[in-house]
């Protein structure tokens, strides 16, 4: 949606770049955005949409935009830090078409109020996963935090930290004990290596950037822009192309030809 957030987590991909990236923001009204997505529907069919940020709920008129979008495309998943989840959103949005994935950030959250907010979200019918970044200084919290989530029938999706901390590069820098705690196999990184393999990213899926540009995938980003979503002639790539990254931690490789493709028609847009 945009590179703006009300949190400043040290393990975020955008740490140290918020001001720089935040300027890449396309000021369009909700009707303009929905007209664009209506054109995508007409040309490409219905899309599954993953809405990320930054923090999506900081986006202007986000509730109206998300609800309007869900009448054109679904399923939609919103990834949020949960700080701005409101009764207004839960009353307006359709949980049959929209799911909400929340992230627990120890620097900003306490378990009790966060879990209460999560209970309320589930009571309103919204599915989704619960994310926790395995940043090395936070690993000690994981056993107790996992237990707290399990007490209300929820689980934590532990996301490996990718980056550098205290001179060690991660996820390779995790110790054997830490990998066991995270449920990571020793060959995790090797299984995420995709370079050179044919991939449908850009043909069946894409990453929409905050300035309207469309990147082939989230791992390549600005290195491969395939068009702008507001261009009336915007089109996806005509065929699969080799992957251009060493690691694909977000599993965008699942749309390669030698894997079973989803039955749903249309395209994926993140």
Could you characterize what this model shows?
By secondary structure, the protein is of the alpha/beta class. The protein has a domain at 192-270. The protein has helices at 18-22, 30-44, 62-70, 87-92, 111-123, 142-151, 176-182, 188-191, and strands at 48-51, 76-80, 98-103, 130-134, 157-160, 163-165, 168-170, 198-199, 205-208, 213-215, 225-228, 241-242, 268-269. The strands form 3 sheets. The protein has a 9-stranded mixed β-sheet, with no helix packed on it. Strand 9 and strand 10 (213-215) form a beta hairpin. Helix 2 packs parallel to helix 3 (62-70).
Biggest β-sheet, characterized?
A: 9 strands, mixed
Radius of gyration: 19 Å
Total DSSP helices: 8
The oligomerization state is: single chain
Give me the strand/helix succession. Answer: HHEHEHEHEHEEEHHEEEEEE
Strand content: 15-25%
Describe the structure concisely for a colleague.
With 270 residues, this protein is of the alpha/beta class. The protein contains eight helices and 13 strands.
């Amino acid at each position: 949606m945009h590179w703006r957030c009300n949190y400043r987590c040290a393990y975020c991909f955008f740490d140290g770049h918020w001001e720089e990236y935040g300027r890449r923001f396309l000021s369009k009204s909700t009707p303009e955005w929905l007209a664009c997505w209506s054109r995508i529907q007409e040309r490409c069919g219905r899309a599954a949409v993953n809405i990320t940020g930054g923090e999506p709920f900081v986006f202007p008129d986000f509730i109206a935009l998300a609800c309007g979008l869900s009448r054109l495309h679904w399923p939609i998943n919103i990834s949020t830090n949960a700080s701005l989840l409101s009764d207004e959103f839960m009353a307006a949005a359709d949980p049959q078409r929209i799911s909400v994935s929340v992230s627990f950030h120890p620097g900003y959250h306490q378990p009790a109020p966060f879990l209460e907010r999560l209970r309320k979200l589930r009571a309103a019918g919204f599915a989704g996963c619960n994310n926790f970044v395995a940043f090395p200084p936070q690993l000690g919290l994981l056993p107790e935090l996992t237990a707290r989530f399990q007490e209300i029938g929820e689980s934590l999706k532990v996301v490996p930290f990718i980056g550098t901390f205290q001179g060690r590069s991660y996820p390779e820098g995790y110790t054997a004990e830490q990998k066991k705690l995270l449920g990571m196999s020793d060959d995790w990184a090797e299984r995420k290596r995709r370079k050179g393999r044919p991939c449908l990213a850009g043909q069946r899926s894409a990453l929409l950037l905050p300035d309207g540009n469309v990147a082939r995938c989230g791992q390549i980003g600005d290195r491969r822009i395939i068009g702008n979503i507001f261009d009336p002639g915007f089109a996806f790539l005509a065929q699969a192309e080799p992957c251009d990254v060493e690691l694909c931690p977000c599993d965008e490789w699942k749309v390669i030809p030698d894997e079973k493709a989803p039955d749903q028609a249309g395209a994926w847009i993140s």
